[in-house]
Input
Amino acid sequence: MGTSADPAAELFTLRDFLRYAITRFETAGLVYGHGTTNAVDEAAFIVLEALRLPIDKLDPFLDARLLADERRRLADLIDARVTTRKPAAYLLHKAYIRGMPFYVDERVIVPRSFIGELLFSGLFNGDDGALIDDPDSIESVLDLCTGSASLAILAAQVFPNAQVDAVELSPDAMEVARRNVAEAEEGARIELLQGDLFAPLGKRRYDLIITNPPYVDAQAMAALPPEYAQEPALALAGGPDGLDIVRRILREAPQHLHEGGGLLCEIGTGREILDAEFPDLPLLWLDTEESEGEVFWIAASDFAA
Output
């Protein structure tokens, strides 16, 4: 690329780079879903995070003039997003859930579970119709398929008296989880265990089990966009119909729940399959701002029934 075409030499403000990034992303037909859903938000995230600015405050900085090294960094990041198709979270080693930052890299799936939103909703804080009346009463939580440990850390925030166990099969993902737990204020209450679902837990039982397991079906795995194909397949692939691991969790969870406990599980778009296969389980399907019927709740007592 010649000097005359170098964006680092021709763009000077944050607004300049934001506009340039949006145009590049739209032209390239990028795919989103790793923390943002469109080119505008993706561009804003890259620009703000790269400059160590608050990711929720764009306007005050739009006309700020950037230093030469800052312009170079933004130009290179924008180009890398287009040419490598890596999710921005990998390029910047950062993902946010509920405004909380987590370290991520290619060893782990980019955290984006709907469960994060549900944990902070009225369902778990004693509001009318809540699934858990008193979050202070929860003393034990299990996060299966923890990945980066983001949900385990959020659960430790929501349930201040709980010991949280977090299980992960991948040794690589476990390294990322250890880093995030070590940096979390709640880290002392989180124990990481490596293994296959409930296998490393022995006879431990919990007041609450949360899980965002792999649930992408085989057809979708074969057609993943480049951004998603760069994530660990182990964290995505859920078998022919995407529900192999979910079925195992439903079979084994009752042996690891206290009386009065419950299971919160994200499954993607397999609701009809699951309802047909387990007609006697009264699964309660929950909606979020961006999903409908992709997460279910079932109480321990409903398993017994």
In short: The chain has 13 helices and nine strands.
